[in-house]
Amino acid sequence: MNLQQALLEIGNVQDSELPIAGLEFVKANWSEFYPELERLIDQFIANDTSLTDDQQVILYFGTLLLAELKYSPALEKCLQLFARSDTFLTPIEAVFGDALTELTPTLFYNVVDGNTQALCNYIVDGHQAMYCKASAIEAVFAQYEAGIIDEFVLSAHVTRWITVFLALPSSTNSFLISALADSCIEYQLDNFKDQFIELCKKDLGDKGLFDEDRFKYDEVKAWQRAGTPKLIESGMIQTDFNVVDTLSAWADDDSEDEELDNISNEGFDDFESLMGEGGLLANILYDENTILENSVPVSSLPTAGRNDPCPCGSGKKYKKCCLR
């Protein structure tokens, strides 16, 4: 196999298949492959809709290999690559899919090589990335978890992030404030507790300061998650990342979900066959005589107080069920 054959195998991969031979070749011949990956990154940065489908696949796998190989010379290229709007249906989301939120923390952590200042600058920059900025925040906290930076350095970063997020109110910065509060609680940075709780009391126009879909006010005010596994401890950030192993596990999970969906659909099909036209139970719904013959006079129904269990057997109080 040569490089062109490896790229052809990677670019033409179908569905949940993995181009294992192609990936092994480019890892073994990294100095030959990386210039091709860098060219694709530069092309995407210049015009994020200019890549062919095959090129997008190569960009996807190549970028994940940066995390596996901990290729720190690519840090600046990675930060440029992900410095753009990354919400649903954006070009970067089209390339990376679930990896955009699930694996970018691992990518940033493994290529940063202790240079948390570069990640901090990326986080406060004015580009529109939201999920990837949150991933960078997690990567910095994981550097703290691993002992690469101390609490003084981490607190300096957090202070800078809060200042920038508050200076430019937006839905993105509301999301990032919430993500940051989550991490501060998880890592017990209690020196920020009063500041975050005070922020909970503020409101910016019609929108709250926090994105409550990401992290709720009540969770901030509680400020308690002692004993929760940290990012590296829980495996959310993988310090020994392997592309094939991780994506194979994803494929297995997808297969299990598909099997559950099939079981659910089979149950629905069985129900349809019984209740649909010509089905054994169709008359229960569609035969007026059957309905009338099986009706129960209202006067014969058991009575219940508002706070008693509902006679229908739902387990709810009467006032919360059939009385409504």
UniProtKB/TrEMBL annotation:
It comes from the Bacteria. This is SEC-C motif domain protein. It comes from Colwellia psychrerythraea.
